[in-house]
Amino acid sequence: MCITLFVTFIAPIVVGVIVTLFSYWLNNRD
Question: Transmembrane region positions (predicted)?
Answer without folding.
Answer: 6-26
